[in-house]
Specification:
single chain, 193 residues, alpha+beta, 46% strand, Cathepsin D, subunit A, domain 1
Length: 193
């Protein structure tokens, strides 16, 4: 038994009859509906924006431009940081760290409250490391928001910033065929819009 429209008997699509045209139109409409519902079931774009798997970003209020890998295989986001130092100020746990501007090599020292620490499994010999997590403003395209990022020396990686699933959830879809689809265009964080 067929799920599609039945073709009239003795009516070949190569003949120009009205019945065969109607059959083709009905078949095409049915296929279009099926394709549309299959596409919407797997990819509800909604208000999400599509980015490539590597994009230019702006980081912190200093607006340091750096390349970021949008990694759907990673849950959390990670930032290349050096001289990571935990300390307390007025009873609050803080983190001081340096980030390097890839364009001119200058180092910027930032201080942020420690949100939490996270244990990350390393790929080498089932080792793990404990990393500090801070909240940092990051802009990708026209999306600017505070994200939780863990701080680690990523000098052995190509991209200094990795944006994970939790940061992209509800906002971003990743097109694995594309890179650098949009320049970051966010205003200064905290400034009135």
């Amino acid at each position: 038994m067929s799920n599609g429209p039945s073709r009239p008997k003795n009516d070949s699509p190569t003949h120009g009859s009205a019945g065969s045209r109607a059959w083709w139109i009905t078949s095409l409409a049915a296929l279009t509906l099926l394709a549309g519902s299959a596409a919407s079931a797997g990819s509800d774009v909604g208000n999400k924006q599509i980015f490539g798997w590597v994009e230019a970003t702006l980081v912190s209020s200093e607006r340091i431009k750096m390349k970021a890998k949008l990694d759907t295989g990673a849950k959390t986001s990670s930032l290349h940081a050096l001289n990571i130092e935990r300390f307390k100020r007025d009873g609050q746990r803080m983190v001081r760290f340096d980030i390097e501007d890839p364009e001119d090599g200058r180092r910027v020292t930032l201080e942020r409250p420690l949100v939490r620490s996270v244990r990350i499994k390393e790929s080498e010999e089932n080792a793990s490391s404990r990393r500090p997590v801070v909240e940092l403003w990051i802009c990708i395209g026209d999306i600017g928001r505070n994200l939780e990022v863990n701080l680690v020396d990523r000098s052995r990686f190509i991209y200094p910033l990795l944006i994970g699933r939790s940061a992209m959830e509800g906002l971003i879809l990743v097109d694995s065929d594309e890179t650098f689809t949009q320049s970051p265009t966010c205003g200064v964080p905290g400034a009135p819009t």
